[in-house]
Design a protein that fits this description.
It is found in: Membrane. This protein is about 75% helix and about 0% strand. By secondary structure, it is an all-alpha fold. The N terminus and C terminus are likely disordered.
């Protein structure tokens, strides 16, 4: 019996808990997808940028990215739906990696929908709490993805759907969390302890960049988190340069942070590849 046949056979005789996990993840993806339609305004809901009194619009705060940034959600949702279908296949039912990833991913899907509903309801404070919980859940899910890279059969599809999708998800939600918290604090009347809005904007952008650097080192140069985090930072730059709430210092800080995240990620990837390369045997 080949290893592939053994893998399929193990999937056929997997316990019912594996099937339950697959079903729940698939249902969670549907719920998140429905939530995205509501959040886009396509299903009769209010677009996120207009909900909650416009608190999350492109010009609501100095940390709000321009509207074009949110197109990345289409890529993330496509990846999540594709992952939900792929993990539902019999060959993935008893896969050790999917067993460890299933419920963390499910939690992110549920929290994603909860965040959209909280914004739609105008509950900005609740949305801030939910998006922080979503970020924590994504850190949990992505850490599981990194820790389980050596489990099961490696494939390009699996790498793209697991590492790629979760990485993009984590990087973008890191930026979205910063923007959401800033919106909540501003609308709650936070005065900034005497700091100017621009000083706070630069500080939070720097923190977002630091998160990107830490993820790059931790993941040994994973590209997906870098792409979405840098994407979000660049769109903050665009919003502060061309929007109705301009700020050259925040725009420059966002652009510098994006460049730093990209450079550190590439360096970490090169270093990781060199360390993994087998030492040549001297002749």
């Amino acid at each position: 019996m080949t290893s592939h046949e053994a893998h399929l056979e193990s999937g056929q005789h997997a316990p019912s808990s594996d099937r339950l996990r697959q079903v729940l993840v698939a249902v969670g993806a549907v719920v998140a997808l429905v939530g995205s339609f509501i959040g886009s305004g396509a299903a009769g809901g209010t677009p996120i940028a207009e909900a909650a009194g416009g608190a999350l619009s492109a010009d609501a705060t100095l940390l709000a990215p321009a509207g074009g940034a949110f197109s990345i959600w289409s890529v993330i949702y496509l990846g999540l739906v594709a992952y939900a279908i792929w993990q539902f296949l019999p060959a993935q039912r008893a896969d050790d990696r999917q067993r460890r990833l299933g419920y963390p991913v499910l939690l992110t899907l549920v929290l994603n929908a909860a965040w959209i509903l909280s914004v739609q309801a105008g509950l900005l404070a609740l949305s801030a709490v939910v998006i922080v919980l979503l970020l924590v859940a994504l850190c949990w899910a992505y850490s599981r993805a990194i820790a389980t890279r050596g489990l099961g059969r490696r494939s390009l599809i699996g790498t793209l759907l697991v590492d790629g999708t979760l990485g993009l998800y984590l990087g973008w939600v890191s930026v979205a969390t910063a923007a959401n918290l800033t919106s909540y604090l501003q609308f709650a009347g936070f005065t900034g302890f005497g700091w100017s809005p621009e000083a706070w904007g630069i500080t939070i952008v720097a923190v977002a960049g630091l998160v990107g650097v830490l993820v790059a080192v931790w993941s040994r140069g994973s590209v997906a988190p870098m792409l979405s985090l840098a994407w979000g930072l660049v769109w903050i730059d665009v919003s502060r340069v061309s929007g109705s709430l301009p700020s050259r210092p925040v725009a420059m800080a966002a652009l510098v942070a994006a460049v730093v995240v990209v450079v550190v990620t590439l360096v970490a990837r090169i270093v990781s590849a060199r360390r993994a390369r087998p030492t040549a045997v001297a002749r």
